[in-house]
Design goal:
Organism: Coemansia javaensis
Number of helices: 30
InterPro entries: OPT, YSL-like
Structural class: mainly alpha
Helix content: 55-70%
Pfam family, one: OPT
Largest sheet: 2 strands, antiparallel
Protein name: OPT super
GO cellular component, one term: fungal-type vacuole membrane
Length: about 750
């Protein structure tokens, strides 16, 4: 009986994940049915690695607001695990399984941000008693799990209908998802999926071979936007690694799958580098625990350290974050740190505008300059969202005009032609629509509409009920929050697809402004509404990157959806437990865990509900807001964007792309202001060392090859940079994971000793 029950469950699960035995339809994008699409072993490894990432993300999120997806690293580590277990496995580990593995890992890893565990929940704890108005501000484990369940589903369900429009029809780039697909194809020795995708799109006459760019994901909140770094393989080069029309196209063919990451880096070397960096970073975490002084080095002198908070924290994990972010982002973070902590903070203190201790959020200059940081983030995020919204409206208007013109033409032809000709014309009118969906996978592998919309409705009802039970927020107000989250998530996903930057900080602030009118004076409700909007945008964006990866590799969206749901639900309980441990052992906020993200949320809630600004901060904040609102518009006007479908850049576009990477980033600038310098300096150092190492290796190789002319052909340079990029990303991943993992074990040891 048990055997028959297990068999029935297996059949039902197979139908849920890969579509069962529904007949295939011709003319659709093929899914490789020779390999398993969903396996529990892939889910198990994804959950395990995602749990490690979740612990790391919670640690760094509470410290500095930094969260990482690490989908690329998940695919790499997962492949390494199954490669090591290959002798005992009956079936080889395939790319479709790797897609499910990294989708599960990402869904598990990002709950600290999507669930508000590094922003909303600490902000609630920081409310004064009169601001809380009797509502609960500190939740128990069961309440934390309920809160996570309220937010974890509707972003996943809402990503499903967005997939067809943004990935299948418009083919938005989603650079991080594309880079992960390229990594998986290299690991499994498959052809470059971007070339195959270009061929499948039917535009081979206009699409040339692309030399893809390596990328790694870094989402921080706020902001989540600094995003992936400029590819280390491109750092310092004159153009994009996509190269210009004058480049040597044979390089792509010569390197094969090394188009992204050079496969000559041996597995033993990769694992040795990952293990060494992991242990080195973990050793620092242990040393800093037993000798706290090493975490705060007064490298600029004791006076600057004591009076103005200028210290260096020699954490390898923050050096790894800098490598992942890239030198351009870190450079603008350094600029923000210098302006905020080197100029504005002393001015506010000496002028008496912030007379308290420098690092005090309420009376010190730290709280004063935070408003400048908040103004910069809001200005840039809102302008960026406005640009995306304007593009969307323009596209919709053009589509309406095109459809109206087609209807008019059809009516004219129907009046002139015979019935047989009319039937043929009617079919030809829809060619463009059918072509746009010709790259979609067979319906057997898609998520059915009843699951999508039924799940969205059920998750909305769950959110409404839990929020009412926890915070007594009226159901109609929560419905408004969810309704506002969905269109904002659309804008966030589109921005992510085009630029790899998800403006979730701006999305949350928009929701806070709206709810200041819906629930005036209710700071708890304002924070909760912002958390709902942010959760929808963050989850939909992160999962869309994974769906892009799966689309390029012809994996089953159903299997990915199942992995994402399992990872999201599992992460609710893991994150809630870890958060309770952190709040039990450590004081939050504290010098070790300043939770700057929570302070940003709280200050915004107070501002929109009528609380006054600190003295003299308004004109300074307004000036910086104007500057950083103008910069995205200037970039839009001065720097030509990449044309839709173009995967190879000409010389002018390549130079514009390089300039765009170094264009001032308001989000990075704001991060440098709201984080103390000790977090920023080590990030900058890590990014600079990675950049300098790549340039030094190229110069040494150039001298060895006897290349002296500046314009001389150097066919070895791109593979060398890709190899360095691979090792740099592995090293950075080990640094980040090492400290995060060891710190959690230190936390467990402290809990067990109390």
């Amino acid at each position: 009986m048990a055997r028959w029950t297990n068999a029935a469950v297996a059949v039902l699960w197979r139908r849920a994940c890969v579509g069962g035995d529904v007949p295939a339809r011709a003319g659709r994008r093929a899914v490789d049915e020779t390999q398993p699409q969903f396996t529990w072993r892939a889910v198990a490894v994804g959950l395990a690695f995602g749990t490690v990432l979740c612990f790391s993300n919670l640690w760094f999120g509470l410290q500095s607001g930094w969260i990482s997806m690490m989908s690329l690293q998940a695919s790499l580590v997962g492949f390494a695990v199954f490669r090591a277990l290959a002798p005992v496995l009956g079936e080889p580990f395939g790319p479709a399984e790797n897609v499910v593995l990294q989708s599960t890992a990402v869904a598990t890893a990002t709950m600290p941000l999507a669930g508000g565990f590094v922003g909303i929940l600490p902000a609630l704890k920081m409310l004064d008693a009169d601001e809380a108005a009797g509502m609960p501000t500190e939740l128990g484990y069961g309440q934390l799990c309920a809160w996570g369940m309220a937010l974890t589903f509707f972003g996943v369900f809402f990503a499903v209908p967005l997939r067809r429009q943004t990935i299948v029809r418009e083919k938005l780039r989603f650079p991080s998802g594309t880079a992960t697909a390229q990594m998986i194809s290299v690991l499994h020795k498959r052809p470059d999926p971007t070339l195959d995708d270009a061929d499948a799109s039917g535009s081979s006459s206009t699409v040339r071979r692309r030399r893809p760019q390596p990328s790694a994901q870094a989402a921080s909140e706020p902001p989540a936007e600094p995003g992936p770094p400029a590819a280390l393989a491109k750092a310092g080069s004159d153009g994009d690694d996509d190269d210009d029309d004058g480049g040597n196209s044979n390089n792509d063919a010569d390197t094969g799958n090394g188009a992204v990451y050079d496969s000559d880096v041996r597995w033993a070397t990769k694992l040795a580098v990952l293990g060494a960096s992991f242990l080195a970073s973990g050793a620092y975490a242990v040393l800093a625990y037993f000798v706290p002084a090493v975490a705060t080095l007064p490298v600029f002198g004791t006076w600057l350290s004591r009076e103005w908070a200028w210290n260096l924290m020699p954490s390898l994990s923050y050096a790894g974050q800098g490598i992942i972010m890239g030198l351009p982002t870190c450079a603008w973070m350094l600029a923000g740190s210098v302006v905020g902590w080197g100029v504005l903070s002393p001015v506010a203190k000496l002028e008496g505008w912030a007379p308290g201790p420098v690092t005090d959020w309420k009376t010190g200059s730290r709280g004063w300059i935070l408003w400048v940081s908040l103004a910069v983030m809001i200005a840039e995020s809102l302008v960026s969202l406005g640009v995306v919204a304007a593009k969307e409206l323009r596209t919709a208007y053009a589509r309406l005009n095109r459809n109206r013109h087609r209807r008019q033409q059809r009516q004219q032809r129907q009046q002139q032609q015979q019935s047989q000709d009319q039937h043929e014309d009617d079919g030809s009118d829809s060619d463009s629509d059918s072509d746009s969906d010709s790259d979609e996978v067979d319906p057997r592998f898609l998520i059915p509409g009843w699951i999508t919309w039924g799940g969205l409705a059920a998750s909305t009802g769950l959110c409404v009920g839990i929020v009412w039970a926890l915070f007594r927020i009226p159901p109609q107000d929560t419905l408004v929050a969810v309704g506002l989250a969905l269109p904002l998530a659309v804008l966030g996903v589109r921005a992510l697809g085009e630029t790899d930057l998800n403006p979730v900080s701006g999305i949350g602030k928009v929701s806070q402004v709206v709810f200041a009118g819906v629930m005036p004076g209710n700071l708890v409700g304002n924070l909760v509404a912002g958390g709902i909007a942010e959760a929808g945008a963050q989850q939909a964006g992160d999962l869309m990157q994974d769906l892009k990866t799966g689309h390029l590799l012809r994996a089953s969206p159903r299997a990915q959806f199942a992995g994402q749901m399992i990872g999201s639900v599992f992460s609710v309980f893991v994150t809630a437990g870890a958060y309770r441990l952190y709040t039990r052992v450590y004081a939050i906020p504290s010098p070790q865990f300043p939770v700057p993200t929570a302070q940003v949320w709280l200050d915004m809630a107070r501002l929109v509900n009528g609380h006054p600004l600190p003295p003299r901060v308004w004109p300074v904040a307004a000036a910086f807001a104007c500057v950083f609102a103008a910069l995205p518009l200037a970039a839009l006007l001065l720097l030509p964007g990449r044309k839709a479908g173009a995967v190879r850049l000409g010389p002018l576009a390549a130079r514009a792309d390089a300039l765009r990477r170094w264009w001032p980033s308001g989000i990075a600038f704001a991060m440098g202001i709201y984080n103390t310098p000790n977090f920023t300096l080590m990030r900058v150092l890590g990014a600079f060392v990675a950049f300098a190492a790549a340039e030094a290796a190229v110069r040494i190789r150039s001298r060895g090859a006897g290349v002296s002319a500046a314009g001389a052909a150097r066919p070895w340079e791109a593979p060398l940079r890709r190899k360095i990029a691979m090792l740099a990303i592995i090293t950075a991943s080990g640094f980040v994971l090492g400290e995060g993992t060891f710190s959690f074990f230190i936390l467990l040891s402290r809990v067990s000793s109390t």
